[in-house]
Every structure is written in C-alpha cells, then in structure tokens.
Amino acid sequence: MRRVLLIGTGGTIASRSHLGGGLEPQMSCEEMLAFVPCVHDVAVVDTCDLLSIDSTNMQPAHWLAIARRIEDSYDDYDGFVVCHGTDTMSFTSSALSYLVQDSPKPIVLTGAQRPIDLDVTDARTNLTDAIRLAAHERAHDVSIVMGGNVICGTRARKVRTHSYNAFISINHPYLATIQGERVVFYLDDHPVDKSARPRFSHEMNGNVGLLKLTPPVSAEILDVMCKTYDALVIESFGVGGLPSYHNEPLGDILRRHMRSGTLVAMTTQVPLEGSDFSVYEVGRSVPREDALLEARDMTLEACLTKLMWVLGQTRKVPQARELFYEPHNRDTLWT
Ligand code: ASP
User: Ligand 1 centroid vs 75 CA: distance in angstroms?
Assistant: First the structure.
C-alpha cells in the first residue's frame, strides 16, 4: 500500500466549531484523520503536527520548516499532504514550488472553508481527495486540492471567502479533477523518474514588498519602499505601465534604486492573462535595467515567493535575473 505523510499546520480545517470565540486551530492530524476513516483504504497515513496556526500568521520561516520536514522524510513516503489554512495557501504552495523543485512525488496542500468536525463541511472531502492524490502514482510536484480541483502550486488564487470552490487556477488549466474515487488527469505529463530526488533549497529572504498602483500614486512611497525592501513587486494596471505625472519620474526613482541593487518586478493587478510592458508608451517608460523583471503570466503569489527564494540564493543581479526567469512547477508559460 502507498505511504503518505500528513503534515498539519493549522487553518480552519483543524479548528473546533463548538468553542466560543473566534475559530482557531485546535486539532491534531490524528484527530482530523478520525473524521475520514475511508482514507485507510487508500494509503497508510502517518502524521506530523508541525504547526498549529491560522495561515494569516504564515511566514517564510514556516515555509522553510515545511520544506525541511518533507526533505527529512522524502525517502520514506510516496506522497505528502500539507493541511493548511486557505487564506495564504497559495503563497505556501508557491513557496514550496521553489523550495522543493522537480519533486517526482506529490506534495498536496489542502484545507477547508469549514472545520472538519461540522456535519456540513468541505473538510472531509478535501482531506480525502488530497490523500488520494498524494497516493497516486501519476501525481508529482506541488499542488492544491480544494473543491475537487487539482491546481498547480504556482497557479492558485483564493477568490471566494465562503464558498467551497474557493480557489481558481490563474493562467493555467486545472491539472486534474477528483471524482469520488477517481483522479482524472487533464494533462498528458511526461513520465517522471520516481527514484529522482528533488532539489531542496534552505534559504529565503522575506524582505520583498508589494506596491499596488492606484490613481494617484505617491512618488515618496515608491522611494521609501525601494529603500526598505531588497526587492519590490509593483502591481500595475492592465498590461502594465507607470504613471507620468510626477515631478521626478517614477522610472528615475526606480532606476536609481535598481542601480544600487534593488530588484523590481513589474506585474499587473488584473488577475488573468498577465502583463506586457511593451504595449503602451507608459509601459515602455519603465527603465530596462538588468534588475527590472517582468512577471508576465506569473501569479502575484508566485512572483513574490520566487523573489524571496531568488534573494535567498544570490544578491547578484545577473544571477538573480537568471533564476527569476527559469520556470519552475509551471509558474510561467511565457516564451
Ligand atoms: N483564517 C483561516 C486560515 O487561513 C481560513 C481558512 O483556513 O480557511 O488559516
């Protein structure tokens, strides 16, 4: 029988419904497993209670700890399930996609909109589905299972705060769907060598900021953010551009900071179809320095966590640029 390691980190799925006050994670993995006895027909499931937090509190040190736990027991299991709060799950799935690269074994994140101890809940289906996928021979790399959909770890976005179908896949098809006991794969993958080991990374630099452009945007704030962060993601409008109504052009501010080592990644606040800064004059005015990166079809979650991973590996701009543009776990299809 296949062997799966269930790693608990908290979230709604592990919260108890009947306690007074706000929901907070309380349950161990063994307690959650007791609600889904059918999984014992699917796999032998061992458990590890790594964290017990609302995912609002997730930070890069937690991502590193999850990756380390997977690394330490990689040879002992056929797949891994990470139970996680839904609020920042897409950040964690992206971060794990960079920390555990080219994993021939599946690393499946799941959670729930309602605690597992309720009569009416999505938690039991999600946990069962996730274990089913983690035990599946064809599955590999980091993904999210929620609402019967399998979403690539670098492509997920939480778009609903209450409904069970809380996540969508951004700029990429769903990888598979889970229909009862069947996993229906949509993509014809290359066969993966199950005996290969992934590339694990052990460093991240969380000092990456996000500036969302609004009309109007403050040049002072841009300057302060460039000084504060080692890398800055700018979420622009539409396919992308910088406004041109400031006394000191924003492009000049960016150029100054990029020349002293700050990485700047340009992306769009439009969720679907990605950025292309070559289309409009306001886009072409963005300084084309080596430290200027374009997120294109990447999600914001993937872009931010990839920069954190890149900065954990190097502070040299040419190497950082190379690492940023190297695709991992389908994070970009741009050619
Ligand atoms: N606040 C919770 C969390 O992200 C929400 C959830 O799990 O659905 O941990």
Answer: 30
3-state secondary structure of 264: strand
Ligand 1 close to Cβ of residue 126 (< 6 A): no
CA 287 – CA 199 distance, rounded (Å): 34
Question: Any idea which residues carry the catalytic annotation?
Answer: 12
- The model scores a pTM over 0.85: yes
Q: Is 332 in the pocket of ligand 1 (CB under 6 A)?
A: no
| Residue among 179, 160, 158 at smallest CA distance from 170 | 158
d(CA 335, ligand 1 centre) in Å:
35
CA 66 – ligand 1 centroid, Å = 17
* Three-state secondary structure call for residue 291: coil
- Give the separation between CA 59 and CA 74, rounded to whole angstroms: 23
Cβ neighbours for 295, distance < 8 A, ≥ 6 positions apart? 233, 265, 266, 267, 268, 274, 275, 302, 303
Residue having the nearest C-alpha atom to atom 7 of ligand 1: 85
The model's pLDDT over 16-43, given as tens digits with 9 standing for 90+, comes to: 987 678 999 999 999 999 999 999 999 9
The Cα–Cα gap between 265 and 254 comes to 11
Token reading at 303: 């872009």
